[in-house]
Design goal:
Elements: E1 2-11, E2 14-18, H1 24-33, E3 38-40, E4 44-48, E5 54-56, H2 62-68, H3 76-102, E6 111-113, E7 117-121, E8 131-136, E9 148-158, E10 164-165, E11 168-172, E12 175-179, E13 186-190, E14 196-200, E15 202-203, E16 207-218, H4 222-231, H5 233-246, H6 255-262, H7 273-278, E17 285-292
Antiparallel strand pairs: 1-2, 1-17, 2-13, 3-4, 4-7, 5-6, 7-16, 8-14, 9-13, 9-16, 10-15, 11-12, 11-14
Length: about 300
């Protein structure tokens, strides 16, 4: 079926997509019926979706992506999760392919897709009185030189909006902006610096969202490989783990400090305080495209 997809470009390389779910309320209702929710750190619970990881040497066509997806269905609960996985995966491909068509400078040597998870923030859960998460990037900067799977494109889906606060906030250079998601919103942005993002606490009721990523498999920097050869794999691995543990807060920005500077309502109208002061709102662009869905 065809459906008109709304795109709001709130900042270079930060897009909001709307009108993407068949029925977002029904999607959330199905998710709540699943019985395999797991503990999610201190934030709440999560429902991992059932899909095998898939890999591509270059960004796939829609047909290549759809035909590569695999999952097992053995129980009634699996059928329910499979329905969620199928719909979510098609949305994920459509919004990220549109996003990447806008920014041809974003490219990776390979493309990896792991299963998404539906996440439930408990009401009031967070690290401070105002924030569930500090400003950070999903690309783990402390591990940037190590081989392994890295985050490339972050895609966040929002399934409800009947809570207070709960904004996603961005810091890109000197610009600060935030967005209070509407249910059904999907936000796409790069996982790496300078696209730092934080999450404000949701109050009044639980907050449901989905995390899904394009990732890539990195072979390791020349410096990392040199040190592994120099010290030996086991010793170098321990040295790296100790370094990461000692510097675990590196790559994060204290959200409460920025909150004090800019105030609670900074950026709620989808632009940064810097650009508002300069009256330069040219990055706020809304587009509509036709999106084809599989039955």
């Amino acid at each position: 079926m065809n459906k008109e997809l709304e795109i709001i470009k709130i900042y270079p390389k930060i897009h909001i997509y709307r009108n993407v779910f068949n029925d977002v309320d029904l999607f959330l209702e199905k998710a709540k019926k699943c019985v395999v929710w797991e503990e999610w750190y201190t934030f709440g619970t999560m429902l991992p979706l059932q899909e095998a990881p898939i890999r591509f040497t270059s960004f796939p066509t829609r047909e290549e992506y759809i035909n590569s997806r695999r999952w097992q269905v053995e129980t009634d609960n699996d059928v329910l999760r499979a329905d969620l996985t199928k719909e979510l995966g098609e949305i994920f491909y459509d919004v990220t392919s549109n996003f990447l068509n806008s920014y041809t400078d974003i490219s990776f040597n390979n493309w990896v897709k792991y299963p998404a998870s539906i996440n439930k923030y408990f009401e009031g859960a967070g690290i401070t009185d105002n924030y569930a998460m500090n400003y950070h990037t999903d690309f783990v900067q402390l591990e940037k030189d190590a081989p392994g799977i890295k985050f490339g494109i972050t895609t966040t889906f929002y399934l409800n909006d009947d809570y207070e606060n709960g904004e996603i906030c961005f810091k890109v250079g000197d610009d600060i902006l935030s967005h209070k998601p509407k249910k059904g919103d999907v936000i796409v942005f790069p996982s790496s610096p300078p696209y730092y993002h934080a999450v404000r606490r949701a109050d009044g009721t639980d907050r449901y969202m989905i995390r899904s990523f394009w990732q890539f498999d990195y072979e390791g920097s020349p410096e990392w490989i040199e040190n592994e050869n120099k010290y030996g794999k086991e010793i170098w691995d321990k040295m790296e783990k100790d370094r990461i543990k000692e510097n675990r807060n590196v790559g994060q920005i204290n959200a409460e400090e920025l909150h004090k500077l800019f105030g609670k309502n900074n950026g709620l109208h989808l632009w940064s305080n810097v650009l508002v002061e300069d009256q330069k709102l040219t990055h706020i662009v809304t587009e509509h495209i036709k999106r084809k869905r599989s039955h």
